[in-house]
Write the structure tokens for this entry.
Amino acid sequence: MAPSRAAVGNYPPDITPAESDQLLFTIKDWSIAHGLAVRPPPALVASEADPLGILATTAPVTLFPSPFPRVCFEQAKSIQKDYNQLYAAIAQDEEFLIGIVQEIIEVDEFIAELWQVHLKVKQEGYTQSLALGLFRSDYMVHQGDDDTTPLIKQVEFNTIASSFGGLSAQTSELHTYLSTHEYPLLEKFPQDESVDLPENMSTKSLASGLRYAFETYIKSSPIHQPCIIFLVQDPERNIFDQRHLQYELQGHQAPIPVFRVPFSEILSQTTIASTSKRQLLYSPPSNPSKTFEAAVVYFRAGYGPGDYPDSKAWQARLQIERSNAIKCPSILTQLAGAKKVQQVLATPKSGEENSILHRFLSSSVANIVDLEKTFTNIYPLDSTPSGLSARKMALDPELCKGYVLKPQREGGGNNIYRSAIPPFLESLPETHWKSYILMEIIDPPPVHNMILRNGAIEKGGVICELGVYGTCLWDANTKEVLHNEGGEGYLLRTKGDKSEEGGVAAGFGSMDSCRLV
Ligand code: ADP
Ligand code: MG
Ligand code: MG
């Protein structure tokens, strides 16, 4: 079913300045009251306005839920468990991963260091075979020229620090609240059955993945004082996103102790027990005489070079990796999320009958064709025949306009777009090109909305990116998937259509929710 043009026609409605003021007034208070908020930028904290760093501000958010094709929403949700299963299998396939990283580590120090940490632990012997993934698969809507049914195309698959689950549940709540209490006052929001705002269980589903891992850990070895560690950046503007998850774990009928440990404090706040199991022990700085055993370490830091300023930081990562705690993610799971892996999955090898997905998934368990439908063209920039022809496209002043160039990095702000690709590549030694991938730009159909950012409203064409969350716990020894959930929670991020990047934290995007059409 194609989206009904009528349903998306005059949307969002035109609103008068008085109506806009009213909405703004409501949203800014609702957001703070419900933790749809971020800390102010560091410049403000450093200034006289907030010397103690106590202020919070409304997260950038759309005034209306953006229209999103129902068929695409359902498609994305329905394949999440298969995607979980796929990435759990990739993370357990060391031979495949070394094949991917071996060329990159020659020129990418960060990936090389990650691989070194894995090798060191492997040599010593991993003590923990369980691994947890809190994943998010990101998509944009792709509409063919012939106006056929829209499809989702995957932007990327995140295996580390997949964020915004906490804020996105709140955003869905906000839009639901407005649709009941505010939009009717404006008398301009369609008040009929076409207003379909899907439930969003993102916070609960991510918390239940962490809880499942925690319970599995303590079942296998009953321990005195178990806890979950959130490994975080410090300072962190997006702290409330993480707090929602923490409060969900603590507010349950069986509360779990959760501690935030800055990545830079791992070595000062944690130790490894001198047992063959190598339990990860944590003593809170506020009460150093007390010791907890970390059952799960949840990474909201450590995904990029910025968190590793020196060799001590790598020692810290090694300390976590060699410990008995269940890592979310392990190093191999983090590497499974590399853009290069996505490219290899999406590039069929000539002459090969079966797609590479058959290496990881049995067709009786997963619907491989449905996963492949979400792939868009992605090319290597190495010296294989397909890499060499991709280099030509990347360097061509016209052809390059349909592509984005991506390094093996996470967290937004790392990509090179369109016409900027040729001069960028030419500025690099050719030996480095192989650590990038070249991806076709997905060009979703036009949508309009209004974004509230820093107290001001921006109006115009927007681009929406849907993320679907999934959680998965597996045992690398038995090859068994112990827990696999997906599709209960989603994220809709929306940016102005003139902006290339869409990360809310990176400052370009805004939180949104889906109005299914
Ligand atoms: P990161 O891991 O840094 O988030 P992404 O691959 O998600 O990297 O790229 C960042 C942003 O760039 C995306 O959120 C999206 O807005 C834009 N982007 C990335 N790939 C594409 C693509 N193929 N088509 C259109 N936009 C893209
Ligand atoms: Mg990413
Ligand atoms: Mg992304």
User: Anything to note?
Assistant: The chain has two domains: 5-376+454-516, 379-441. The longest strand covers residues 456-475.
